[in-house]
Design goal:
521 residues, alpha/beta, Rossmann fold, 4 domains, four-stranded antiparallel β-sheet, globular, AAA ATPase, ATP binding
């Protein structure tokens, strides 16, 4: 399903893009060298929460390490109990055995939003985005650690879900933990965790001993500590406590953000995390293997890392369906169709004959730009598997633009790329986006549609008009609301009737698919 940005998303994006006071990380570029198999990286952050998915070994954890090493910190800055320093260095993450060759010949560019950069031709008033470069020459050390931008950075790895009952230090101090001084944010933490887990905590405190802490809560008349919490509950208290303890404008880096949480809790977690990020100006960068996490974030907050012909490739704006079908390595059909969203998929599933449907796989990608990027990846890989990108009808007059974008993503296009691109694409009927095409066509077959949705003809005419006025991509939410049915059911009903009545408009596409299947066979 196409992601619908909420008012909260728009607020977060606006705040993030205009915030130059909290030293936000805007971009990381690996310009030279290879780090733990990652040989190319150019990732831009446009939203305060960023999720990175990919198969094991693709480079996700390396990107998290690079993010942590973007900053330095004061000695008085925040640090986790086990850490010696208030900042991270590359040696915290890139550790070698004596038989391993350390990374050398590395150059990384970091871009930060900042309001105190020294004056330059591009930043005459010192406000904007500035760049710092980290290098490691052959046989040398990383340069200029102390000159890095100052900021609280915290990395929370998978050890956060280890129960306190299995942590040696917690077990050792189980009898001596006692109340620490109140921090002032305990109620915010208990409310956040309670929201995520659907639980009402009447109290939350942090017990302390030496440099270690232990959460303790009360639910009704029951009082229990981290020794008797589930892994997800412990992790949530640690995550939200860390955010508030760090203070405003911190960077939180999380490995496998969904660990310990069931699907509903993951969705509620991201919802509350957005609130907390807005409140505290926190930036979060995480990895994930969860479709639910991707589904809760805007397209430009999602990245997929993979190896293409042995080279690292990172794709933004990717749909959950496509990303996680890649992770699942689902066996592909004879021909794979790539479409922009679930509306395009619904139209094709109802318009194509069963003889074709049974031999194809349809994957939702997310946008026209994402389709172009995927075609570029297919061209680079030189895949023999037949693939067609089916663009929305309103992309017809942008074919040259989409072709050039795809070509720019290929380092060395083979042969006549424009011809190759044209042979691997087609379009949905019409010259509008698919929702608009469906609703406009639906106004021409109202009697049949009225019977399908159990609505009288006059009322349905008004409902379809409401849908057309709802705005781009909002049509079926409005129509479904007026009809009192679910949006997906509404979309399916309209697509079924319209594609049946106007099946002649699909004949060129069906002919193209038939030829592709014949060639595949």
């Amino acid at each position: 399903m196409k992601y619908r940005e909420s008012h909260k998303d728009k607020q977060l994006r606006k705040r993030f893009s205009n915030d130059h006071a909290h030293l936000l990380l805007r971009q990381i570029v690996l310009t030279e060298g290879t780090l733990r198999g990652l040989d190319a990286l150019n990732i831009t952050f446009q939203y305060p929460i960023t999720a990175i998915a990919g198969k094991n070994g693709a480079g996700k954890s390396t990107i998290l390490a690079l993010a942590c090493c973007a900053y330095h910190n004061k000695k008085s800055g925040f640090k986790l109990p086990k850490r010696k320093n208030t900042y991270y260095t590359f040696s915290d993450f890139f550790i070698q055995h004596t038989e391993e060759v350390p990374p050398e010949g590395i150059e990384i560019e970091y871009y930060f939003a900042h309001n105190k950069w020294k004056k330059s031709p591009t930043l005459p008033d010192g406000v904007g985005v500035g760049m710092q470069r980290r290098r490691k020459n052959k046989g040398g050390k990383w340069n200029d650690y102390s000159g890095r931008v100052r900021k609280n950075v915290v990395f929370l790895g998978i050890e956060r879900i280890v129960p306190h009952s299995e942590r040696s230090q917690s077990r050792s101090y189980s009898r001596v933990f006692s109340d620490g001084a109140p921090k002032g944010w305990e109620d915010k933490v208990k409310d956040a965790v309670g929201f995520v887990l659907g639980r009402t905590y009447s109290n939350f405190r942090r017990l302390e001993y030496s440099k270690y802490s232990l959460p303790i809560v009360q639910v009704g008349s029951a009082v229990y500590s981290g020794f008797n919490m589930g892994a997800g509950e412990n992790a949530l208290f640690e995550i939200f406590s860390t955010i508030y303890a760090c203070g405003a404008g911190s960077l939180l880096v999380l490995d496998e953000i969904e660990l310990g949480l069931h699907a509903e809790a993951q969705r509620r977690f991201i919802g509350r995390l957005k609130d907390v990020c807005y409140e505290t100006h926190t930036q979060v960068i995480c990895t994930t293997h969860s479709r639910e996490i991707f589904d809760c974030l805007p397209y430009d907050a999602r990245f997929f890392v993979e190896k293409v012909n042995g080279k690292s490739k990172i794709t933004d704006g990717i749909s959950s369906d496509f990303a996680f079908s890649k992770l699942a390595a689902i066996p592909s059909a004879e021909v794979e169709l790539l479409v922009e969203d679930d509306v395009a998929k619904a139209i094709l599933l109802t318009a194509l004959p069963a003889a074709i449907r049974s031999r194809i796989a349809i994957n939702v990608i997310g946008s026209a730009t994402a389709l172009a990027r995927q075609l570029a990846a297919i061209h680079v890989r030189g895949e023999a598997r037949p693939t067609l990108a089916i663009f929305d009808g309103d992309q017809r007059n942008k074919q040259d633009e989409n072709s050039e974008h795809a070509k720019s993503m290929c380092e060395k296009p083979k042969g006549d790329f424009s011809e190759w691109f044209t042979s691997h694409i087609d379009y949905l009927p019409g010259d509008a986006w698919p929702e608009a095409w469906l609703v406009q066509r639906a106004t021409e077959c109202i009697p049949a549609l009225a019977a399908a949705v159990s609505c009288d003809v006059d009322t349905l005419e008004d409902v379809l008009e409401y849908g057309l006025q709802a705005g781009k991509h909002k049509e079926f939410y409005e129509i479904a609301k007026q009809l009192g049915i679910e949006r997906d059911m509404c979309l399916q009903s309209v697509a079924m009737i319209v594609t049946g009545v106007f099946k002649q408009e699909f004949e060129p596409l069906i002919s193209h698919l038939t030829k592709a299947l014949d060639d595949a066979g």
